[in-house]
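Query structure, 192 tokens:
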């Protein structure tokens, strides 16, 4: 019986060993994990996706001139600053009469500018002469050779000449602005 028991025990051990190997073989592999040192900090998460927004304010962009839109310097969604050029506009082609009128306006404005510059030179010369006369009359008054009224009259003449000079300078500035305006109009219509 000893032999029988021994056989049976060996068989049982073999079956148990096979079962143990089968269980070990069929068991899933352990999940690999990554370890790290824990530390306190802030968590920042960024999500980049497309979406739709609604503008809180609407702006109407309009041009003071008519023409063909040549190109835009900005793209949809791009930020723009005040005064930044958004687009370029080519004026519509004009007829020959409009171009001739614009050229005549420019020529007239340039003639007015030359005339006001000549008047400015004359006003400068008149002021220099009036100041010189006023200085001489003041010296004569200091020597007792002329009356105070005569001295004051020449001082007033110098003041009037100074005012005419300021007026002539303003006229030159206005004429220069007219020339620039006429030149701009001509460039606007002479784009054929």
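Result returned for the query:
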């Amino acid at each position: 019986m000893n032999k029988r028991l021994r056989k049976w025990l060996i068989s049982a051990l073999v079956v148990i060993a096979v079962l143990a190997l089968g269980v070990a073989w069929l068991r899933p592999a352990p999940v690999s994990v990554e370890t790290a040192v824990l530390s306190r900090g802030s968590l920042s998460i960024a999500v980049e996706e497309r979406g739709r927004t609604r503008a809180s304010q609407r702006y109407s962009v309009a041009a003071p001139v008519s023409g063909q839109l040549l190109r835009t310097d900005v793209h949809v969604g791009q930020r723009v600053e005040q005064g930044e050029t958004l687009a370029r506009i080519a004026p519509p082609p004009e007829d020959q009469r409009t171009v001739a009128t614009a050229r005549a306006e420019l020529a007239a404005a340039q003639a007015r500018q030359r005339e006001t510059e000549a008047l400015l030179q004359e006003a400068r010369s008149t002021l220099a002469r009036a100041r010189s006369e006023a200085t001489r009359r003041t010296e004569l008054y200091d020597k007792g050779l002329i009356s105070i009224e005569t001295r004051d009259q020449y001082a007033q003449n110098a003041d009037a000449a100074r005012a005419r000079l300021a007026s002539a300078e303003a006229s030159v500035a206005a004429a220069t602005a007219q020339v620039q305006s006429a030149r701009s109009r001509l460039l606007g219509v002479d784009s054929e």
